[in-house]
Amino acid sequence: MSKINILALSTEGLRSFLEQMGEKPYRAEQILAWLYHKGAQSWEEMTDLPKALRKILSESADTGLLHPSRKQTSTDKTEKYLVALADGQAVETVILPYDIGTSACISTQVGCKMGCVFCASGMPGFIRNLSAAEIMAQVLLVKNRLLQCGRELKSFVLMGSGEPLDNYEAIVEFLGAVQDRERLGMSLRHVTLSTSGLAPKILSLAGLGRPLNLAVSLNAPNNALRDRLMPVNRAYPLEQLLPACDEYAKKTGRRVTYEYILLQNLNDQAEHAMQLAALLMNRLAHVNLIPFNAVPELGLKPSPRNVVNEFAGILKKKMINVTVRRRLGADIDAACGQLRNNLLG
Questions:
Q1: 221-230 pLDDT, tens per residue?
Q2: Are residues 131 and 240 in the same domain?
């Protein structure tokens, strides 16, 4: 028989599992504290559990934790982990050392269906969704690594390989575990979900009314250009996407971030900045400009720094909130758009 994955259980589900074994419900809180907050990697480390219970758990249950197959460290202290999954697949998870606190970039799928022309994650094609437990295991991997060196995970982004809203049910289950005080116990104000723009799922997410930060990968100010860069726009053009984002802002009270990857001579001209400003004017919006991070196979180039600055300046003059994303981990292919799932690459 396969073992029960503890990370796949709700708090009540774990209590029920333990009660079936003849254990008191409070044992669930002890186990969850070890897994989510104390950095235990095995049942043996959970020293306030009776030895007999630890033995039974080792035979019948798996902690659900994942372990890295490879680690790379950037010159800017960014860390990238290749995380092997039980079925032989793999995803990449990144620790981001920002000045305001350590963050992490978490993957939600093995591969991706979206086919954005500037992103490496979809190059292997779509393989499968991650479970809520596999997504959480990445967060705990980061949390435990930081715990070992006296650091704390302040925030994280669902911005690694995959389209989170294409894995909607698992994401909603995962977010429940994030908010659960007995499990991760983290406010969704410290969590950002990045989407290529699945408008119906954005509306579904808005209906939950949770204070989750939404980042939309926009990258073009008109449908013709966005169709070229992001095939998803053919299904959900700007006329559908932007009203869905407006509804999200209305229901949650959270400003929507529009990510805009700047590609030399493609979407970085002054006319594009003017169109973008007109598109977002009077919306609860923030623009995050992202200089393109090189992926050799894609044949695209980043916009020069002076072009980035000019683009940002036009938006500011039009009273659009804008920042330029700090580049982290590019030398180890850990920056935005560079993550893959190759066990060998």
A1: 999 999 999 9
A2: yes
| 23: annotated active-site residue | no
326 class by beta-carbon count within 10 Å (0-12 exposed, 13-18 middle, 19+ buried): exposed
> pLDDT tens digits for 128-156?
999 999 999 999 999 999 999 999 999 99
Same domain membership, residue 34 and residue 142:
no
User: C-alpha 73: how far from its chain's center?
Assistant: 20
CATH code: domain of residue 276: 3.20.20.70
Weakly modelled stretches of the chain, pLDDT under 50: 332, 334-335, 337-340, 343-345
Known catalytic membership, residue 92 = yes
Cα–Cα distance, 143 to 147 (Å, whole number): 6
> For residue 343, is it within any domain?
no
Nearest CA to 116 out of 288, 293, 312 is that of 293
Range list of H helices, 284-333 = 305-317
List the structure tokens of 296: 């050799």
Q: What is the pLDDT of residue 331?
A: 54
Domain closes at, from 21, 39, 62: 62
Residue 301 is given by DSSP the state -
Q: What is the CATH number of the domain that holds 27?
A: 1.10.150.530
Is the domain of 165 the same as that of 290? yes
Catalytic position from the list 79, 92, 134, 259: 92
Q: Which residues contact 44 (CB under 8 A, 6 or more apart)?
A: 54, 58
Structural domains counted in the chain: 2
- Domain range for residue 275? 68-332
Which residue matches tokens 């979407």?
267
Catalytic residue from among 105, 116, 119, 336: 336
